Amino acid sequence: MTLPPAGPGTPPGEPTHRANGGLPRRVHLGYALGSLATGAFGTVPGLLLLPYLTDTLGVAAGAAALLVLLPKAWDVLVNPVVGRISDRTRSRWGARRPYLLLGGLALAVLFAAIFAAPFGSGPAAAGYVAVAFLATATAFAFFQVPYVAMPAELTDDHAERTRLMSWRIAVLAVAILVSGAVAPAVVTAGGDGVPGHRWMGLFVAALIVLGAVGAFLGTRGAPTGTVGESEPTLRAQLAVAGRNRPFRALLVCFVIQSAGVATILAGVSYFAGQVLRDPDTGPTVLFACFVGPALLVMPLWTRVGARVGKRAALVAASVLLAAGAIVLVAAPVLPAVAVYLVVAVIGVGYAGQQVFALAMLPDCIAYDTARTGRRQAGVFTGLWTAGETFGLALGPGIYGLVLQLSGYVSSDTGAAAAQSGTARLGVLLGFTILPALLVAPPLLLLRHYTLTPADLTTAAPQHRSADHGVVLGEKSR
What we know:
477 residues, mainly alpha
């Protein structure tokens, strides 16, 4: 295969790929830096927003669950629209890169605003958080959708996309580790409560700026591919995705699994305080154990994928994640060191689950291009990121509902209130059994994912002709 031609933003004389056809390390690293932004925003709200609402602003757990869920569920509608907009963008920087800079900077400012707390605590404060979170989620869509669309246009090579995703997931692991482990420490160092969360918001905003600017500059001169016209309506986009059976199976599986991962993120602070009885250092240690191993095992997962295939490796990683979560049910009777070791095993599974799902997505997009003759990565990544965002929002929503049903008591002091045994049981089960049930069963859907490298370069002529006619709204030839 050959790389797509460089876009209009490529400076004259600047190399866009190495002699052997692969992307240069500068592009690998530059693209991967964008995961500082996606990792920080994907982690910190899921980790701290729910406890911020219940234990600092005094919002009831059920209401807090809705406040966390609804603004990000909005992205289910916004992300496909953003994908369509980016597909139609024409600029000297290409179709995607302008949004890396503009969307990323807007995301940073709005993220800090979420935790500004201009109204103190109470209903007005809760309403402010909902509006600010909605605006931030919209800005995130304008960064994430173009960002996720880029790999399918940076290279046509099946293996090169896996290498590109490995770099991205490695940086994503660093972003999750730094933002997830340090953000709670910043809250504590800042005095807890509202002041501590304000400092934390500024810290995470700085990470987002670094990631957005780094991705924008690092992909300068990289191939941009050829972006075709996108579908005019959400219904048309769903129709395009619906005809891509591998994408459909992968998307549904990943959305449900994302909800399971998000329940773990949402429960970290509660689990550390109510089960481990260590609300100060517990969240930081849990995050270090969860994400730290991912940095070490990423090369191993890459070799596993090359040996057994991406789908089989995704199944193995997901089973490992779910099994570890089930074992963690015994946490109340285990020594702390054993709990942290089990969390590390869960983190190993999580690393593989992420890298292979994200490596399979560009293959689905390339398959559609081979099948229809059209490049419309924004359609697929818009739907993908909409689903992922919904899953990441659904997890805290479900976890908050579990807290409400188990009788969790909210507080406006900046520290968790004393909880009943039933509430602590809800904290435990929401952190263990619930994510296992959301991660393992969806693997059955992957029976319908049957892509091979050969499928990405050839397509039956009759299928190509028929699909092309349907997509364009013309008669089939």
